[in-house]
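Two proteins follow. First one:
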Amino acid sequence: MKPTAINRIVKWNQERGLDQKPFDLVQEVAFVYSEILELTGNRVPNHDQYAYDFISKIQNPELSLSQEDIADGFGDIIVFSIGALHKLGYDPEQVLNLIMDANEKKGTYINHLGKIEKTQEFVAPDLTQAKSK
């Protein structure tokens, strides 16, 4: 049986040791914010560092979230993202699998922000294959 996209994402993180790094809420939210910058056409120079610095500045230092609160927030991001893909006429599972196919070719170099860097040979996935409508 073929693994689900979520299983592939977990395995990809495990193979690169990303799941062995301590959880850093600012870093994880900055990863999401960096993608939002790209999505909205606001790709600033060093956007990953910019996202990390921005989230570091706006996070409430008195914030006290439980692990369940954090899981709920990231889970909601996934739900909204899958809904948006569906509204655009894409098969979300296929989109994630195509992205993982491309990610598996990225390499293993982890930058100072904890993100896998793309190599020169990286090719973005052709998501037209996931169009369902």
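Second one, unrelated to the first:
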Amino acid sequence: MKKQFIMVLLTLITSHLLYAQQEKDKKEKKTAKEVLQELPETLIAQPDAGPDTNANKLISDNMWMVINPLWKTKGLLTFTDFKLQKTDEEPLAETMPIPDKKVVQSILINLGTVKKSPADKKLAVMNNVKAHLTAYYKEAGVVISGQELTDKVNAAIIATEDFSTNDGKTGQLYLINDIQTQQSNFIVLLLLPEEGTPGVCHVAMVQYVRYTYETAIPEDPNELRTFVYADEQETYVDFTKKMLKTVHIQ
């Protein structure tokens, strides 16, 4: 009789504990929208523990970087870069730093090692900026001198700073405005020199694209820059830096 009483008591206690756990799980369960809203902050960090996974890693060439897994699902990885379209539409809009503003419509990410020094790779990027500005002024019907064009290209680099990844790799980070007639690009360019190998560098470039639909092209291309407000630009830069911190070279 005593044994039966103990068994019944244990059964009741076990049932109570299971019920309590189920109720707790129900209360802690988050909606899909709540999860999506947290993605920008939670998915720019490495998993704390558990089995290795590539679900949140953008792998290209001999490098990888942690990104939102939804980006990998919706984006397209080509031989040259990773393209993510319609970032101002759901569900991707909720993964952007300022989802309600919908500032950016597309993202391009380039990861890879090139046989160029950081200075030469930077020059190649700035030559593209120069070509875009030249075409812009031509279409706008504005004539400027070669020196004026050079000055404007140099001014397109709005900030430069030293940068270190979580792995301890150090290099230079550049913030660049790249403006065209049909779109404006905000480039965050990270160049990491290859230690002990001159003429080789690792490139991680994130380019935010905002399409423009102006019927009349303004004389000053800065009127069409991606970020009009400094606080919005700073928010995107901080968001991008967190991703670039995770850059890993195989």
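SUMMARY FIELD: The beta strands are 57-60, 63-66, 76-77, 82-85, 106-114, 157-164, 170-179, 183-193, 201-211, 248-249. The first helix runs from residue 2 to 28.
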